[in-house]
Amino acid sequence: MLRESMRPLAPVAALLTALLAALVSATPVIAHPLAPALLQLRELPDGKTEVTWKTSVVRVRGARVEPILPEGCRGTGEPTMKQEGDGLIQRWTIDCGEGGLVGRVVGVSGLGTGRSDALLRVALADGRVVQRVLRADEPTFEITAGDRPTSVFGGYLRLGFDHILGGVDHLLFVFGLLLLASSTRLLIETITAFTVGHSITLSLAALGIANVPSSAVDVLIAISIFVLAIELARGKDAPPTLLRRFPWLMAFLFGLLHGLGFAGALREIGLPERDIPMALLSFNVGIELGQLAFVFAILSGGVLLRRILVRLPEWAEHVPVYAIGCLSAYWVLDRLSTWLR
Hints:
alpha+beta; 2 domains; six-stranded mixed β-sheet; 11 helices; 52% helix
């Protein structure tokens, strides 16, 4: 039985959840990954360069993420600023001289303290589009004459992979689904249903078809985890509910909700106009790969621990369930208070 292989994870999961609770208490935003910043440079026909700098209004306290523009480039005209949803967009133009952007270094500072990545997109006058994902260990990039367009698939794939693994709330929900499934077949059906559900709303929200305030989505995601914890806490002798008999249905319905959360980061960085289908597909694939990696790690850990640990008392099975319930309840109250403010 699948559930037998999960029992040894009870104390480990409880410890990890307790540590996460402590971190969340100190920094609430860690429960949900911050959207990557976007630095877009577009060379104009008149030799100037249009700069678009997009960041999230939600940020780690004390962090300051700023664009690194080429040395010697001077600003021209007045910058504009506007807010779209949770994103703050600034636009201005710079003049880098006759050589333009080729041979210049651009980047983003503060990625380490900001706990987020940044997407760099450069549209050169010769028609080339260079794209990179900048991280704390590689915050700058030199634009050379021989640069080839970066694969949109690879860039957005990594963004999706990092996003799911940085989302503690999403991972706790997936962990709860593992505890809910009583057999390998049910596990496959449940994870597949969750994937289908969030893939649908991720696509609809990213394309602007479905538009739900992110604050409301965050609250509902926390509620979904709390509901799952309540279902897991029910005794073995309790009458089976619809959610227990058909966990895949629960996973699909709540997957629709989690997909709206996944779409938040994608809306913040935007989709490349010429490669929207490819970017959307690769971001979704990255999320699925990250999710599968998490599931594989949990199941492998359960099998390994079952071989080296003695049989645990029955009450140990309830420890991670109550830990997940307490943490999700905290998220509900914290996010609800933020939304109401």
